[in-house]
Amino acid sequence: MSSTRPTAPPPPTPKPGRVKVYRALYDFQARSDEELAFTEGELMYVSDEQPNKDWFQASIGGKKGLVPANYVISENMEELPNPLHEAARRGNMDMLAECLRERVSVNSLDKSGSTPLYWAAHGGHLAAVDMLLKQTKVAVSVQNKLGDTPLHAAAYKGHTECVRLLLEASANAFIRNQDQKLPIDVSKDADISALLDKAMKENRVNEQEYAEYLSDSDAD
């Protein structure tokens, strides 16, 4: 396959999530009806858009209320980086649903530049992939720092049904990673390769790309 043809630039990087997640390390007793009480170990969801620097609007277990800002940004709380990614990576459906309900961004990026959908597809967690794809603002074909998309991950790991779901959600099968590989190029499974080949043939918008793929394949 030719390695000289430049790949198309990746789409604009989605913004990181605006909701931060903390785990309480100590109990807190509310002193008014507006404040939230919580116990050690409970998860707190806090928006980074706060109207008052002294009080944070937060959500715990579906309940909303105020928490002193100096309590949140202290040793009393442990911030959880990328909780939606971790839930997707492990296939933890309860945590995944809770994060989405609390408006943790479905398109947030971790240090590798990957979305939660990438890790759900990578792990073959079909229910997690399905739940993420049902979110109205989900970006299906985001490339990470290596240029891989969720479709690359599912194809490479041999997760046939995840590949099928991604294609049904219009995942782009013509995106090349930094090694100039399409998802079909990294597939080691005949059924997955057949699914990807069929999707590429049927995508009339990318007829030229498919012709180039066939040309490259013939040259190998």
From TrEMBL:
Main location group: cytoplasm
Family matches, as SMART domains: ANK, SH3
Record key words, sorted: ANK repeat, Cytoplasm, Repeat, SH3 domain
Residue ranges of ANK repeats: 112-134, 146-178
Cross-referenced InterPro entries: Ankyrin_rpt, Ankyrin_rpt-contain_sf, SH3-like_dom_sf, SH3_domain
Gene Ontology BP terms: signal transduction
Gene Ontology CC terms: cytoplasm
Record-annotated SH3 domain positions: 17-77
Localization of this protein: Cytoplasm
Function: Induces bone resorption, acting probably through a signaling cascade which results in the secretion of factor(s) enhancing osteoclast formation and activity.
Name of protein: Osteoclast-stimulating factor 1
Organism taxonomic ancestry: Eukaryota, Metazoa, Ecdysozoa, Nematoda, Chromadorea
